[in-house]
């Protein structure tokens, strides 16, 4: 089985990939990096587990370890391609999509852009060109069609970033159930504890992979005018996602 962690940008992609990989390893499957190296997938799959849009020829390469009996996780920001939809219908891929309040996404994009410029980093993401909250809002708007496509894709488990931050153990339990993993609740508790972003203790995953990641911080960062712009652009999608306007 291929576990595809699709995610909105700035919604904890690496975080979710790490948790998913640990769930699979705890269930007796091979570590993701071992699969990546063993089946020579390094030419298109990053060490972070990220893959570009899975067009047919890339999907065929992932099918090799699947056919060999491997179960492993990969992540993407891309919408579901026809090949991915085909694989989901046949049970080859189990999909999870994580999303976040687009107002916090916009705020995070702006702050990430400021950091990249301050450090003189030319990122392949292009986030260094986001120089205002307004730029972040408009870029976050471009992520919404992908959210909509995953929402309409049968067999996809939808997760909210905010719910994972609030109660990672419960959401990990939902992930394990979606993936048909028969794990002891104590094991899920231990994994959730290691990845709990509220801990930020030295050596934990949270301490290494979170900057702020605070839920709802857009209220403190955005001006009244910027909040009005966000409501106008995101509109009814906020309610569909489960967020208050």
Structural description of this entry:
This protein has 245 residues and is an alpha/beta fold. The protein has a domain at 2-101 and 144-212: Rossmann fold, CATH 3.40.50.300. It is 53% helix and 9% strand. It contains 13 helices and four strands. A four-stranded parallel β-sheet has the order 2-1-3-4, sandwiched between helices. Helix 5 (102-118) crosses helix 6 (133-151) and helix 8 crosses helix 9. The chain starts with a strand and ends with a helix. The model is unreliable at 206-210 (pLDDT under 50).
Helix content: 40-55%
For the record, the CATH architecture of the domain at 2-101 and 144-212 stands as 3-Layer(aba) Sandwich
First-to-last CA distance: 38 Å
Using the alpha-carbon principal axes, give the shape. Answer: globular
In terms of structural class, how would the helical and strand content be classed? Answer: alpha/beta
- CATH superfamily grouping of the domain at 2-101 and 144-212: P-loop containing nucleotide triphosphate hydrolases
Name of the CATH first level of the domain at 2-101 and 144-212: Alpha Beta
Number of helices: 13
Question: How would you spell out the order of helices and strands?
Answer: EHHHEHEHHEHHHHHHH
Strand content: 5-15%
Poorly predicted sequence stretches spanning 5 or more consecutive residues? 206-210
User: What is the CA-atom radius of gyration, in angstroms?
Assistant: 18 Å
Mean pLDDT: 89
Number of strands: 4
């Amino acid at each position: 089985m291929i576990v595809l962690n699709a995610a909105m940008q700035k919604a904890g992609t690496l975080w979710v990939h790490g948790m998913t990989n640990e769930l699979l390893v705890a269930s007796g499957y091979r570590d993701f990096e071992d699969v990546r190296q063993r089946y020579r997938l390094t030419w298109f799959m990053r060490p972070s587990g990220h893959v570009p849009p899975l067009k047919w020829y890339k999907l065929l390469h992932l099918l090799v370890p699947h056919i060999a009996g491997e179960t492993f996780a990969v992540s993407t920001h891309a919408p579901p391609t026809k090949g991915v939809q085909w694989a989901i219908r046949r049970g080859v891929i189990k999909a999870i999509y994580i999303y976040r309040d687009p107002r916090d996404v916009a705020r995070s994009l702006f702050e990430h852009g400021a950091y990249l410029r301050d450090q003189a980093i030319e990122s392949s993401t292009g986030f260094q060109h986001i120089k205002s909250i307004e730029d972040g809002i408009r870029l976050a708007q471009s992520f919404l069609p992908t959210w909509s496509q995953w929402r309409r894709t049968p067999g996809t488990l939808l997760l909210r970033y905010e719910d994972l931050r609030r109660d990672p153990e419960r959401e990990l339990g939902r992930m394990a159930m979606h993936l048909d993993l028969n794990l002891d609740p104590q094991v899920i508790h231990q994994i959730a504890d290691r990845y709990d972003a509220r801990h930020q203790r030295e050596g934990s995953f949270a301490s290494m992979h979170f900057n702020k990641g605070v839920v709802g911080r857009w209220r403190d960062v955005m001006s009244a005018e910027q909040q009005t712009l966000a409501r106008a652009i995101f509109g009814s999608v906020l309610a569909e996602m489960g967020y208050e306007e």
